[in-house]
Amino acid sequence: MSPSRQVTADRGDPRPGRPQKRQAIIDAAQRVFSQRGFTHAGVDVIAAEAGVSKQTIYNHFGDKQALFTAVVHAVKTRVRAEMRHSFEAGYTESGDYDRDLRTSFRLLVRVLLSDSVAAMRRLVIAEQVRHPELAREWEQDRPTFEAMLTGQIEQHTAAGVLNVTDAPLAAHQLILLTANDAIERSGHGLHPLSDEEIATIVDNGVDMWMRCYGKNRNDTT
Which of 13-22, 33-42, 59-68, 115-124 has the lowest mean pLDDT? Predict the structure, then answer.
């Protein structure tokens, strides 16, 4: 197909195919933005990566800024779902909350350190001066996850498993000791961590947290 026909075909795609094409553009843009950064990611390069014309991208998104925003939103939405899945998948009815925490946070850290998520996090950090609204949007899900964890901590405190007086603070501390520590140690994903390294970081964090909040902590003076 000639270039002129390609452009015509892109413009004339039937409506049912547009969501798939939009997603293909977002996926391609994510790869290009991650590799080149926002400034050096040309719309022509993104179009070539997606197999569409530049005009198709403009038709869908208007400009590169709007496309970048759509990419951040798409990745954030996927991460939110994967974080929730990790949180729920690690929780069992066995009553062993210590073990459940380790399982949940190992799964969570793997999500946060996956190549695509880590690359997007680095890009958002790099662009936060010019695009502070995207940095704010990227962090919006953290309070949601902390709220989920807070609720779980409150339930286990009521059940006598934990000794927690400030559940939101305890949730925040647990995230710092596990997920945040892993992210920092990996250089925000630049230095991949093995499963064993992730397990060690999470286990150390949970150990410290449980020594503070577990029902069997040493309260003797």
Answer: 13-22
* Same domain (yes/no): 123, 22: no
Distance CA 188, CA 179 (A): 11
- Token digits of residue 54: 């530049």
pLDDT at 3: 43
Average model confidence (pLDDT) across the chain: 86
Of 112, 111, 125, 102, which is closest to residue 174 (Cα–Cα)? 102
Question: Judging by beta carbons within 10 Å of its beta carbon (0-12, 13-18, 19+), is residue 113 exposed, middle or buried?
Answer: buried
Say whether both 83 and 170 belong to one domain: yes
CATH code: domain of residue 155: 1.10.357.10
Which structural domain, as residue segments, surrounds residue 30?
16-62
The contacts of residue 196 (CB under 8 Å, 6+ apart) are none
Q: What's the pLDDT tens digit per position in 163-189? A: 999 999 999 999 999 999 999 999 999
Which run of H or E residues covers position 64?
Answer: helix 64-89
Largest CA distance in the chain: 82
- Any idea which residue has 């630049």 for tokens? 190
User: Which pTM does this prediction carry?
Assistant: 0.78
Instruction: Decide: 29 and 61 in contact? Cβ < 8 Å.
Output: no
What SS3 state is found at 10?
helix
